[in-house]
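Archive entry: two folds, one per protein. Generate the first.
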Amino acid sequence: MEQRLDQEVCWRALGARDARFDGRFFTAVTSTGIYCRPVCPARTPKRENVIFHPTAASAEAAGFRACLRCRPETAPEMGAWRGTSNTVSRALALIEAGALDEGDADGLAARLGVGERHLRRLFRQHLGAAPVSVAQTRRVLLAKQLIHETGLSMAEVALASGFGSVRRFNETFQALYGRAPSDLRRSKARGEARDEGGGERTEAVRIGLAYRPPYDWDAMMRALATRGAPDEAVDGGVWTRTLRTAVDGTEGSVTVRQGAAGKAAIEARIGELKALPGVLARVRRVFDLAADPEAIARDLSADAVLAAALEARPGLRPAGDWIDAGEEAPSDRLETADAALAARAERWRPWRAYGAIYWNQTEGEAQ
């Protein structure tokens, strides 16, 4: 069944600037042609001029452009569709890794084992936009973030955000924003000026990836340190992954640490900038940055034991694999030889992996 936004709930959340709804919907204002996050500090528009969209891609597909003040590209990703459609989950993971930067929707659908029309219908149902629109919005928003947060040249931004050419990059920004991408950088306030080399390319690309608190960073780093994955290491609260051309399309490394509130601080040292979208997609998967803690807590709290564990240890998340096997949605993965746990975990769908973490936590405390 199609998921629809409750327009009145969205309106109340907008009026309250409720941060819990950040990334859950976007506010499109018909009188300005701009769409914003619900936490945008701008004056609340008139109700008759507002249309709420479930995703940034939906708003852009309807002809709205991203707000330069609240920067929708910095909103946490929404993972509420997980468990609703595994096909959408897999398609988004592939798109984020660049499946539509060089391929087309037919090829993406074939990789998923569905028809292209069916895939488009699922995307319209769950995300409010077609796969190609979602892919373009991801490219544009990543480019916009790189313009704001790094000193990369415009040509480098085009490569690093997945555009096939600088010409296409410039044309897309001109169509969406009515200005060249370089104008977005020039229009920044002096207090937000670049601190990464005055516009020259720096040795590393530093960017923040948003997530929804709470997030137990200590527990995540312990999990990553003890799993012994090749090419990974944790030292002093910093996770490092060595990049290989055969896997990542580039040589280099990426580090992740806790950043400002609600942000993971990423530093990528890569030889091929076009590999950046795929590297960031893998970082999001490893650190489970698209999780929805409220939905997880709401559903798992139906289990009396898990309810207590969730209250005692909020923010636990399963560490993901760098290389995605693509068999199940991230939130529903569960590898266990414990038959009793496997049976109990069936009640925890679509959050089985989270349920197992909290269950194991309570088991460990009982011993």
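Generate the second and append.
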Amino acid sequence: MKIPFVKAPIMGNEEKYLLESFRSNYHGGGGKFTKQSQNFIENEFGVGKALMTTSCTDALEMTAFLLNAAVGDEFIVPSYTFSSTANAFASKGMVPVFCDIREDTLNIDETKIEALITNKTKAIVPIHYAGIPAEMDKINEIAEKHNIVVIEDAAQAVNSKYKNKYAGALSSLGTYSFHATKSYSSGEGGALTMNDEKYYERSEFLWEKGTDRSLVVQGLKNKYSWVDYGSSFLPSDLLSALLCAQFENLAQMQQKRKKLHDAYVKTFSKLKAKGLKMLYIPDEIETNYHAFWLLFQNEKQRDVFLKLSLEKAISPYIGYIPLHTSPMGLKLGGGSFNLPITDFVGSSIVRLPFYIMDHEEIEYTCKNLLISAEVALSF
């Protein structure tokens, strides 16, 4: 049996809606399925306004425009994240200020944020790692105190909740991913979520390549022109058609993912006494079961586990290289940050294969990964 790291889910009407979109003779952005996807996000997740994008990266770049930051302004971000979380802002000339993470959730450590704030800080950009939202009440409290914008990178947390409120609706601005590796997928795709009306009009100008075409569509103008920055952020309606089909099966897909999560918990709880740590879900969180990670005691154990797993045709993944130690991160000043938990996690973590598996796949994966972990922990 071969177990890849991820498989994109196919649940219901994907082919039907894709064919309908194909036959509509309109394959651009902003069509029927794009609007349906946006309406679903707004209504289901309690988001003020949503705009579909070609990726979560694009959504983050839109938030960077909305900040109106100047070159040299700063943003606080965990180093343990994907490059897009920082690159969207650094590419506009902003300076990343890297914050350490919590060892339990691997999210940004909210207790270390305030000490990093200066008069140049314009944003705090937490990610919700593995579908577990960060400690948003405290983060929002700090941001409000210092008049700073909070931007949720909720790429991994679509359909997760923090204190009964959905990720993406927890701050002024947020972003989703519908990439092929995510819980709900259109192959490539994302969304910008907004919960402050002051961003609504300008976001549409950015979305429409810097034009005020949205005012023409609303009948408020008879022609549009270039009024702002922007780019080609709209996804094809073909991709949104795939996503609409996934949204119809949101609860069913989450329950299927929970089966694998529960099997992993049962399997690896046996090794906690030997020092193995695993995904932690705080009491106030309802997760979308996006991912599952193990944290070994050192890099040697992690590497042995990976080697043994691959020998069984099971493909775990090492996770992120911390941004402050990466070539671009170092170029932007990452070497000046002391982030001990981030460094440890970066060298010792493993992300396990996670997708909607059948019973036989779950049994094979858990049985063999347990063996690999038991051997690795002896090093």
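Annotation attached to the second fold: The chain has two domains: 14-247, 250-376. The first helix runs from residue 14 to 23.
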